[in-house]
Write a structure and sequence with these properties.
alpha+beta; 3 domains; five-stranded mixed β-sheet; elongated
Length: 421
Amino acid sequence: MSVFYCFLYNVFTNESLSSLFQHAHEGILVLRADGHILVANQEAEKMFGYSKGTLVGQNALVLVPQYSIEAYKTFLLNFQKTPVAVVMEEKKYFFASRKDQSVFPVVMHLKPLLDKHELRAVLFIHDISRRHREEEVFLIQKAQLEQVNTRLETIVKDRTMVLLKAMQELTQKKEELKQALSKEKELNDLKSRFVSMASHEFRTPLATILSSVSLVANYVDVSDKDKQAKHIARIRTAIKTLTEILDSMLSISKLEEGKVIVKPMEFNFPQLAASVIEDLQSTTSNDIMIAYKHVGSSDVVLDPHLLKHMLFNLGSNAIKYAGDSKTIRIESEIAGNRLQLSVRDKGIGISSEDQKHLFGRFFRAQSAINIQGTGLGLNIVASYVAMLGGTISCKSKLNNGSTFIINLPQQYIHEQENTSH
């Protein structure tokens, strides 16, 4: 007879120990190997809602919810084959059933009793209903807190959008902008960059328009038509620059508001690329050549409008930052259900430190600080790439050019999570 079994025997034969057993604060059952109850203490009877002595002789299945009976039977068979001590839990809790069929969470410790005659087991039962209720209250409070956080994030986002729109209005007048800057010193770095970009990029073309209009007014003779045409062209260029800035801001606003919708359709990508390159070539001087090469199949199912914008932006940047380089190389390849597009120049390049922030909103690399630009283009391109389920990367060295590489699925999948942007 095992030591533990001897102890249990003493419990039933010794009056003091028997009293301790009966008045324990946890339920205790002694079971036969087939699951029938031999002994039940008062706490077990109270816990399960049985009157004194009525649990004895019943199968422990009466204490198991209906949906767990088969699992319990399987467990009992395994226990008979390999009697070892176990803690019975189902994920966090094991649910037991009272006499009235109500269920409650418990933790049960099962210990085998082995002797030469028969396998028996002692079941220690802890009612953890209170802990269970406390955890449920905690989960409810946690969910409520998450809802509050979500509402706060929405409020912060809405207020940020209001501030951005206010700043766009302030940039229309130089003096108003200066006054606004003195009042908005505590704005974060993103807003500060926006103010700096807008002030410079609007002021330069506006000054050009103002001076050119004044000069055109002086050339009233027929012989001055060439000079008039020259300054009118300058005005048109300045207006085009302002339009591009406003278009970029509008694109950012639409992205923030989720108004940019992907509209996929099947089209010939090399033809689209050739059309964009023709437009790019017309905007640059004759001494810069744009070379294009395509490999693989031709058709894709993507949004042609977004792809035109991405290619035109990357091509314009390559031209703008080409320096003394005379050739811009654009290559595309469709293979393995992927479209890869690269734009390479041999211009001023970008430092490794600046590359870390290259796709951030309003970011300007130090190497391009004296070249006109808003710092919005690459951020918009990166957003469009993400919407189409792709990736964009940059390889660059200072004074040794840059290569931008876009990888996209050949066919847009509407269910992509990125469409929410």
